[in-house]
């Protein structure tokens, strides 16, 4: 009996200390959205102490009333959290449905040309016009330029060969003229 009374006194002293610091009792007064993990542990501690006091004896009605109040408050907090999360979930669903409808409307408004813009095929490419290294020509234009370059190279080789022939011819005729001049 003496040990039970000492435990009860210890519990009362802890409660007084907690009240001086604002401790566990303040957690029950907070909004459910402001609760922290520490507050949850404080509330659990309060309920646990009240349960111990109920089993301790003489002050059962006061401890029972306190415990009943705390349990009701915890249930109210849980109800608020559940209803708020349900509202948030409903708002998210409504927003998702709204975005889906808007997307469908955009696809429908785009007509046949709109589908090509929304779903790019394997031979389509998205280009950033602000990128200085972006492609500036189509593949067909590049093929045409390369083909023209190759033709010009071939023509250049032909002209260079002709030039070599003319040089040889001029050199031969110059030698022949020199030989004629020397022989005279």
Automatic annotation (TrEMBL):
Cellular compartment(s): Cell projection, Cilium; Cytoplasm, Cytoskeleton, Microtubule organizing center, Centrosome; Cytoplasm, Cytosol
Gene3D superfamilies named in the record: 1.20.58.1770, 6.10.230.10
Region (Disordered): 1-33
Coiled-coil annotated spans: 82-109
Pfam families assigned: RH1 (PF09744), RILP (PF11461)
Organism whose genome encodes this protein: Rostratula benghalensis
Keyword tags: Cell projection, Cilium, Coiled coil, Cytoplasm, Cytoskeleton, Protein transport, Transport
Domain RH1: 23-109
InterPro entries: DZIP_RILPL, RH1, RH2, RILP_dimer
SUPFAM superfamilies reported in the protein's UniProt record: RILP dimerisation region (SSF161256)
Keyword flag Coiled coil: yes
Name of the protein: RILP-like protein 2
GO (cellular component) term, any one: centrosome
Domain RH2: 134-184
Biased composition (Acidic residues): 1-22
Example GO biological process: cilium assembly
One GO MF term: small GTPase binding
């Amino acid at each position: 009996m003496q040990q039970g009374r000492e435990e009860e006194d210890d519990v009362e002293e802890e409660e007084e200390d907690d009240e001086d610091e604002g401790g566990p009792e303040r957690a029950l007064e907070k909004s459910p959205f402001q609760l922290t993990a520490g507050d949850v542990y404080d509330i659990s501690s309060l309920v646990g102490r009240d349960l111990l006091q109920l089993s301790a004896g003489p002050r059962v009605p006061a401890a029972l009333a306190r415990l009943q109040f705390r349990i009701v408050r915890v249930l109210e907090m849980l109800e608020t959290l559940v209803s708020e999360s349900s509202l948030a979930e409903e708002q998210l669903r409504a927003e998702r449905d709204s975005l889906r409808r808007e997307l469908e409307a955009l696809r429908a408004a785009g007509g046949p040309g709109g589908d090509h813009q929304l779903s790019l095929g394997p031979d389509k490419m998205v280009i950033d016009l602000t990128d200085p290294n972006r492609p500036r020509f189509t593949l067909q234009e590049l093929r045409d330029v390369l083909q023209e370059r190759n033709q010009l190279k071939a023509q250049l080789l032909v002209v260079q060969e002709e030039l070599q022939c003319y040089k040889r011819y001029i050199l031969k005729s110059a030698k022949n003229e020199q030989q004629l001049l020397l022989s005279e």
